[in-house]
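Example record

One chain of 505 residues, shown exactly as stored in the release files.
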Amino acid sequence: MGLDKFMVRAILAAVSLLLSAGQAAVAADTVALSGLHAVGNQISNSAGQDLFLHGVNRSGTEYACIQGWGIFDGPSDQSMVDGIQSWNANAIRVPLNEDCWLGINSSSSYIGAAYQSAIVAYVKLITANNLVVILDLHWNAPGTQQATGQEPMPDADHASAFWSSVAGAFKNNSAVVFDLYNEPYPERVISDSGMGWSCWQNGGNSCPGLGYTAVGMQSLVNTVRAAGADNLIMLGGLAYANDLSQWLAYKPADSQNNLAASWHMYQGNTCGDSSCWISQVAPVLAQVPLVTGEFGSSNCDTGFLDSLWSFLESNDQGYLAWTWDTWGDNCSTYALIDDYDGAPSAYGAHYQAHLVNLPWIFLPPNEVQNPGFDSGVLVPWVFTAKSSLLGSAAIDSTTYQSGSDSARITVNVGLGTTTAGYEELQQSGLPLVAGRSYTLSFWAKSSSSRNAQVLLQRCRRSEPDFWAEHVLAAVQLQLHCRHQHRERGAAVRAGCDDLEQGLDR
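Predicted structure tokens for this chain:
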């Protein structure tokens, strides 16, 4: 995807087109955790960077209110946020209670307006600290029953009203993600996984035997969008969000095309080893973003945790541990901390040590093929003379910036020649993705003072080819590609309508 032009004698080395320019060296405070949206199988921010979400669940807001003794279990102020940030976490999942938000089925003073205002302020505090908030419907109940736990499916009596209200409250905060239902498990009641997926998608008559009318994920997605919210939506599968086997087949339609899969992985779950992850989970995360909203090991098995993190990170997907609470130091409690200032429990120490060195954005693959010419041949680069001058291009194994080779372009200019010309080394047809940012960088030098340029060409059937930008040697070009046009005959298939030049060296 680069068009690289050189005059006279030039050596070109290590052309690279790096998606998002993401790497561990990117400072966390330079990564905006807002404008979250799905791009392919990644969650991107407003700058087009692919985010690596890693964080914690903060339990309490699903049970304290309905039990009548508060809204939060532990602090909910800046000190709590500071403690979480001290682990280099960038996302907090906040479980909510249906009755408490709607102010129904309880005489508790911690429900209704009091609960809503507290949650709104809590989310505002967290996102103001450049953290992502994932809100999930955690505890629910149909009719006049109190929401003191979770049902197999969201209930038609209240869940739609809940999400209409929650979506309306947070639709203007693009750092907030909606996880529509914590852990569906209708198949455990229906005793039929096939019907379970139909129930999951459609609710209503597709859910026989639940004892109440369920609302399906399609209806809840529609409810969120009808509230005017285009926030990213997460959807957990069956078996307490552990089974994603039919997630793609039953994926709801979304007018915003802004859905992610939610997956829960506790040691001992049915889909609990790498063979199942590869067969069931990998096909899903290949097509849509996946967030492991909860994970844990009840016996502090660090080997299991390491293998889980390795699987997710190798597929560029994020995860959040259960839970940032002080419930004791026993592994079976899944409590990550001994104190809300961030002091880890014996269970949480391994996760803390892992989190502190993680980047906030993923380093995407280099989309340029044979970028450093170290294959020993120019292919797939193509050399073309763009003037009447004679020229050539060849691999040079004696002079290079890094690796083992470079590409040497030679232009033969006869005495007395005044006609300007240039030679071109190009590569075309790279698979850019609309909505992502790209950084194009290169190294070059020449035998005399000449410009070495990297240019990007946009081609449309209705417009002539034209050069969009050029940069001098060792200057990086930042692109924000919003539309993709792949048309024959163009040296670059980018379709980038919005190009910006960066000056980082």
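Notes: Confidence is low (pLDDT under 50) at residues 1-12, 14-25, 459-505.
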